[in-house]
């Protein structure tokens, strides 16, 4: 069975935020965003806003062969880019794909965001929503393996330090100067290429975490792990920090 590692980066839909949470008030999108963040901070909340307000602006997918070697990492919808095209291309590919999607926190963030955008743009994804064994099935890995959920024993522990800690634990660079908290800032500065690069970096490092998890749980042995790692090592040179 083949695997596809995926990751998304998002922006905040400030217009929707204003329309829903500040309806009838004579303020612009930026002021609504500022007030919403300020109110959350006063309540002790995080600056990371609910998934309902996130819009994908970059999606990267890594193609993993049956022998667990990483063959390619691709940024979707680069030609004639639009946010709707990005969402449509992801779901069209996911529906055709017969293997297993692999993510880090995809169940808690990436897939819910993409499902909401399928709703927004009227995209059908019957394979994803089919039961049993669909990409939404938490304890089955036929269509989706969320590494975060798996390593956390399906919520039994809290992964303090998150993906960055796990990557460093296995000898990967981990998060560099750019992390998810800076994506909105980069988007507003028009630096979409840097966002695409960051998203690709996450996919590459997620792949090597996935490979170690496959070894840990005995899906591959030491020889297969080393062969896949060596075959995929050139992708490490693409990481920019």
Lateral strand order in the biggest sheet: 3-2-1-4-5
Percentage of residues assigned to helices: 40-55%
What is the CATH architecture term? 2-Layer Sandwich
Order of helices and strands: EHHEEHEHHEHHHHH
CATH topology category name? Nucleotidyltransferase, domain 5
Shape: globular
Structural topology:
Layout lengths: L2 E10 L1 H8 L7 H14 L11 E11 L5 E6 L7 H14 L3 E4 L2 H16 L4 H4 L14 E3 H5 L10 H8 L13 H6 L3 H25 L5 H11 L9
Parallel strand pairs: 1-4, 4-5
Antiparallel strand pairs: 1-2, 2-3
Helix pairs in contact: 1-2, 3-4, 9-10
What does this protein structure show overall?
By secondary structure, this protein is α/β, with parallel strands linked by helices. The chain has one domain: Ribonuclease H-like superfamily/Ribonuclease H (Nucleotidyltransferase, domain 5), CATH 3.30.420.10. The chain is 46% helix and 14% strand. The chain has helices at 14-21, 29-42, 83-96, 106-121, 126-129, 147-151, 162-169, 183-188, 192-216, 222-232, and strands at 3-12, 54-64, 70-75, 100-103, 144-146. Strands 3-2-1-4-5 form a five-stranded mixed sheet. A hairpin with a 5-residue loop joins strand 2 (54-64) and strand 3 (70-75). Helix 9 packs antiparallel against helix 10 (222-232). It is globular. The two termini are 32 Å apart. The mean pLDDT is 94.
